[in-house]
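Entry 12.
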Amino acid sequence: MNGHTSVDTHANGNTPPSSPTPGRRLRQLLETSKDIIVAPGVYDGFSARVALDVGFDCLYMTGAGTCASKLGQPDLGLATLNDMREHAEMIANLDPTVPLVADADTGYGGPNNIARTVEQYHRSGVAALHIEDQIQTKRCGHLAGKEVVSIDTFAQRIAAATQARERIGSDIVIIARTDALQTHGFDEATQRLKAAVAAGADVAFLEGITSKEEARTICQVLAPTPVLLNMVENGATPSWTTEEAQELGFRIIIFPFLAIAPAYYAMRDAFERVKKTGRTGVPGDFTPKKLFSIVGLERATAIDAAAGGSLYSKV
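Predicted 3D structure (tokens):
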């Protein structure tokens, strides 16, 4: 239904041992794809299911969207490791053949905390996570007033992440994100990403890019390390298409607001319609069965039938 070749899964939702791991799948995309990897931002299971149905090859679990949908709170460092890991595990295992890139904020503490974060994200089926250089009481990268740790502390965070990956034999992709562009300027931000790559990061992420000149330069100076673009609409970064981002040199582009922004407007319109008119205006073809079909009714029916059941045969 989602346009991808499905694979059988164990009862716990993990892919069979013979299948490539999520990290390996993402690495293969980075190594073999000539096109930029497009990862739409999803904020819950339903938005992830819709993105999978459209046929994307990669998904992005937005931290801001997780805070908003799971906690009903702003992205001000309020989400804990458990909040983020639990959300990421659910999304990653809806279709383990589609890699999930997930926000991991600052790593949630010192080297031991960061090691635990990597271990838990790996066991949850996450393909890649990004760790940033903001202080612990962080905020959305497109808000003013950010503060960052020293370059040495940032490098230690990335080193702790990559060493944890090696200890557990994982191939999860480590993405180093710096928010220093707004606080210390382009040259300092570049040095931070170079230090992160030297510490073992696989992908670089310069938050809050403000011009095509900055974009081209960061991709050139960090080559051959892949660079990720965070395409936050109406934020610090100009609005670029996937084609423009690829021309600038980026290898991955994420769209954190792609699902949550239209969802807000659609839901608000529907709520206001009910309040004013008493009618929902829900399209006639959106039946309960359609909803359940989007989130896996066909697969659930097949599993039941394969075991000899007939519980859903008349759904």
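Annotation: The chain has two domains: 22-263, 283-314. The beta strands are 37-42, 59-61, 100-103, 128-132, 173-178, 203-206, 227-230, 252-255.
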